[in-house]
Amino acid sequence: MSKIGHYIAMIVTIGILADLMTTTFELARVDKGLNTSLRTTAQLVSIEQAVNQKNAALAGVLRTTKQMSSQIATLEQAAAATRRNIVSIDQLNADTLKLNTEQQAISTNSAQALGKVIGGLTSLEKATASLGQSVSALDKVIQQDRANLDALKADTDTMNRKTPGV
User: Fold this and answer.
1) Which domain of life does the UniProt lineage start with (predicted)?
2) Which H, E and C letters describe 64-121, residue by residue?
3) Cα separation of 69 and 76, whole Å?
């Protein structure tokens, strides 16, 4: 019986070795799957960081657009003042033309006409100075808009950079 027992022990040992080989093969597949999953998770973390960075850039875009929105009122006021000055200058030009026509027709009242011309020219000078101030205010707003647009472009460029791993 000792030979039969020896054969049975060998068969059992071969069976155990075959089972261990199958288990080792399956464990190798699981290890490969875990390594793939780990690499994918690392890529997802990298992508998440890039998305968070781009979301932070959105806050800059929002701040810039809010600032630009608040400056629209200033721009509208300056534009309204410019329109008023243009209307005033137009009226003063019409008055000056009328005065010039009257001066030509009525030579006896030339002193009065000259007084009106001087008054009109003085008003014209004031309106022109006011227009200059309005244009200066518009220039400041335009410069601020230019700076805001540059900031908006920088924020947009940050957002448009390619996200790694995608």
Assistant:
1) Bacteria
2) HHHHHHHHHHHHHHHHHHHHHHHHHHHHHHHHHHHHHHHHHHCCCCHHHHHHHHHHHH
3) 11
